[in-house]
## 1
Amino acid sequence: MRTPDRPLKIAVMSFAHTHARGYIELLKNIPSVSLLTSDPGEHPAAELRGRAFAEHLGIDYVDSYDELMAWQPDAVIVTSENARHRADVERAAKAGAHILCEKPLATSHDDGVAMLEAADAAGVILMVAFPVRFASTFARLKAEYDSGQLGQVFSVRGSNNGRLPSERAWFTDPALSGGGALVDHVVHIADLLEALMGAAPVSVTAVTNQKLHAERARAETAGLVTISYDNGVIAAIDCSWSQPDTAPTWGGVSVTVAGTAGTVAVDFFGPRARGLDTATGLPIEEPYGPNFDEALLSTFIDAVCSGKQPQPDGRVGLRTLDIVLAAQESARTGRTVAVSKG
């Protein structure tokens, strides 16, 4: 990671997304970064949010976004509810700050386009938080694909399964999240496929249900999405919140890429130490290896210092969002749906 000539001022907008904590924990340990946060508004009583959360993490905090922007940050990380991404990105862009936006980019195509336009007009970077593409295992998969070792790839099977994200109630409120498991999990695999193949999605067929966590969620909790690409590849993605609450880990991301010369399967969060909790007898798992979020933030900070747009950019975010929107329409109508081309 490049070291800036002066402390880099990075602001975090909102503690709504559970990923905010991970980003903050990493940023506060970087000597060249000055960190300021804000999480205004009314929050559910059961959730640790706002100033109390900042004090818990030991980080500086202001009560409003106006104060946050008055600090004149060099960069902003947007970790608000999905439906609020557009307003927060537009505010940050207007303040002249480079932006890392949590996934998905937005909850509608029009909002996504407006966010790209705001960043372009302000001349600032807009990057989307897809950390899995920074895994060394993905770099090896990409190298094998690019060198032709897999032959002609014809199908990909992907899964991004996890627990119901109950730490934050808004995840299962479509008015704030834009949907359920489709919105939360399809975009990670869609980003990996874009980075791997560079192919354009053509059409999507999706089925969903709400059998899992039916009493707790207001959106789909399980889904299977099939995507056809313009290079002939067909990808199937299981995006379900299918991990039980008692599972020893949150979930995982994996892909199996099949070609005429070979097949490669990658479990991106596979390396774990496994054992039993001696007090409860329940299984425990502790991941080890590189932190993908650290690589994501390092890339973003390097880009802020250099002024060069990193990947994945807002246009990648918009294309992956369009896959989700097509999947939602397909699940709703029972038809195969063409993916928007712009």
Note: The chain has two domains: 8-131+302-312, 134-292+321-338.
## 2
Amino acid sequence: MNTIADIAKIAGVAKSTVSRYLNGGSISDKTKKKIEKVMEETGYMPNTFAQSLKAKKTNIIGIIVPRLDSYATARTLIGIDEFLRECNYQMFVSNTSLDLEREIESILTLTKQKVAGIILLATEITERHIEIIKTIQIPVIVVGQEHQQLYSIVHNDYEAAYELGKYVLEQGHRKIAYLGVSEKDIAVGVKRKEGFKKAMQEIKGCEVKYFETSFKIAEALIKVPSIIKEYQPSMIVCATDNIAIGALKAAYMNGLTIPKDLSITGFGGYEVTEMMNPGLTTAKFFYQDAGRMAANSIVKLVNGEKISKKTLSKFKIIIRESVDKLNINQL
């Protein structure tokens, strides 16, 4: 593989001249044509990523993700990558495996690597996050969580949960289990629960119990049988589609038919939920669009433009076969 030194030797110019050409510096037209000819003949391709790291202002955006085995993360990254490529930016992805300490380390590491900005797909915002982001002096956009001191792209969790809650009530369900996650996660653990509670409060005679699990399908599979046995709800509203998939499996393992014996809903709108039998009723979030919005916002901040502190992405209630319509008069 040819190097800058090889190109310089073949073209009969100094290595610094080739470097200046690659970085858009001033050289004569004659020298420029000579270097271009050699590059074409040798098939030399400059390492734009390395060039960017050496430059005073890079075109690299650091992306910090909590996990790589997530539909939401994957779709968000696709949207980010699409938009950044259109703007001639590159992305550098750092995975934290749901480790908050690694998340903080990633922010500092990306800053040392002179990225132009950072997009953080956060599961939780702590005071430590705020302290670090204040000190690094590069733009940061948070996706999926919000904080009054940070720029954020937020899924409309509260309204989505409220609308899904209203739909559940419209189908006649009055004994409902809500299976959520830790309230350390403000978006999924708090906002979705609060939106759902608001809908429940608008109807009298509705019995709701709130339970908690993790984001893992396997843990929902363990949690749900005790909910079914001890509470016997007509409906389980799950805070994510993965939790709902675990709930569906648990119901089948306990001899129940969905939705005849038990109705189940989720949040997310993962593609697999359409292929399941029965298809899962869910609040769909547009993760790819949110990724493009985040990329657009970070590019604007990098270039000194003003943006809104908080931007909401859209959602849609997708009605499928996992919810049964009950006759309220017979309850």
Note: Residues 71-86 form the longest helix (16 residues).
## 3
Amino acid sequence: MSLGPETSLHDESTPTADAAQERDTSEKAIAGRSLKQIAWRRLKKDRVAVGGGIVILVLIAIAILAPLLIKLLGHPFDEYHNDKIDPTLSLPLGKLGGISKDFLLGVEPVNGRDIFSRIVYGAQTTLTVAFLSAFLSTILGVLFGMSAGFLGGWVDSVISRIMDFLLAFPQLLFSIALVSVLPQSMLGFNTRWSRTIVLIVVIGFFGWPYIGRIVRGQTLSLREREFVEASRSLGARSPRILFREMLPNLAAPILVYTTLIIPTNILTEAALSFLGVGIPPPYPSWGGMLSDALQFYRYDPMFMIIPGAMIFITVLAFNLFGDGLRDALDPKAR
């Protein structure tokens, strides 16, 4: 007699479990993805952008671990190795600029300094200037661009004219003149980091109008949207609307343009160092190494090829990654 109720109870519970399982499966099937998840999936599928990102991460790791890498694989960047130089021609002994197991990228003509060590420390300097100047440009561009686009009126007119003036200003010539008259050491830093700070400020200051115009245009479009009007009707103040409502919607173009402005900053720093107003000797920089190689490229082409290749690879990696990031964050892209 007791088997009937138990059997009946078991039969009733089975469909309930099956229905719950079907409901969970259907919920997983229709689960939506956030914009971040969609962008991440798109970026992962772009092999070119992923390759550029890997190269960037490797370069950042090299810059951070520069002292350790030099200790393990190289020599001090300002140490002379005259025994590796032909006393008659002042050129490196051996083939390909003196490349060997002790000097992975060869040595410099005349003095025999380790090119590998100078490339590694040059990466540290170049990436520091590029990243921090891009960060400074982004901060200034976002603040002034959002203010011009949101407030409008005379504020927009004044900021727009300032941006037009800076965009028309001869940045390179002004940078050369400014850096030339500043002292070698200041603020308690040594010569290398004093000049690095100057380059960050100069490059970052002249770079903000580019991102400022983009942010201003996006802000002019966003300030007429419904969610902004709703915030105003609820009594939200301008700072809250700017930084809590509008800034998250500007994150994608800001991020994309920041990644694309970094290679421009790398080339600007290399150009200033090439012209002799960047990182002062004996501290290494890729542009400075190219400048030193001018008089030797016919006899020791590796001295010019190596720093030139590093600049090319770094700029290319940032451009490829920036293009892939732009496509991944584009809501209209498939």
Note: Confidence is low (pLDDT under 50) at residues 1-14.
## 4
Amino acid sequence: MDDLLTTGLKRFGLVAGLSLSLVIAGCSSDDGKKEEDNADKPETTASVSEAVNYTITGIEPGAGVFKAAENAVDEYELEGWNVQASSSGAMATALGEAVKNEEPIIVTGWTPHWKFAKYDLKYLEDPKGVFGDVETINTMTRKGFKDDNPNAYKLLEQFEWTTDDMEAVMAEIEEGTSPAEAATNWVEANEEKVATWTEGVEEGTGEIELVYVEWDSEISSTNVVGKVLEDLGYTVTLTPLDNAIMWQAIAGGEADAMVAAWLPATHGDLYEQFKDDIDNVGVNLTGAKIGLVVPTYVDIDSIEDLEAK
């Protein structure tokens, strides 16, 4: 009997020992799994805010999207955040470096733009509507331009294209082609569409100055329109200006036209300021959009996901 009891206790001790070992191993395994899961877990919204140093990489401070970004900081109560002024080119460079290193970044963005074709990006949701709805890009001329240049005015009035058209020109420029050459290539490859712009338009003479803000989208559209006007016989000057000065130049009659007016949000305040002194010829592109943009690997979906400092 004693031998049986001793044997039973030994067996029980062995089983208990094994059970304890399995429990310990199980806990260690679970802990290891948790560590792995935490390592694989995407950045939290708080860490994204910290990782970008509570900074939105912007463009020129006079741009509507820049002002809207500043408004977003206030509306979403993002205390301690900064909208960093730079330029369209500097913003694109910073975005490219961040994507290359898979680092988080938040930029002021708009479409059409070649960056959406080159990188996997997304707009942050804007439930408060700070950045507005879909926009149009409009053509504006100085007062009296229609009387002075009726054929050129008719061309501008009939000029209309799509976001795909514009992005094709932008992409070629981004790859290293000069804006003038990219515009020429597009015009030659899209004769049918260009023919709808020039329908009923007679050849002309004289000088025309087109002004634009140095955004990739406006560089593309202005060069394309300039090329078509040159083909009609005009001597065309393309002049890059800051946003406000571009509008002032048209309103003051110092320049003839622009195809770079984003409405109703981006240039809305400037349009209200100068609308009585300019001629709104009409829409040349629909489906434009502005907002805050991040690479898709950044684990936030809305401006509301951002944290105050």
Note: The beta strands are 55-57, 82-84, 107-111, 121-123, 135-142, 207-212, 235-240, 257-263, 278-295.
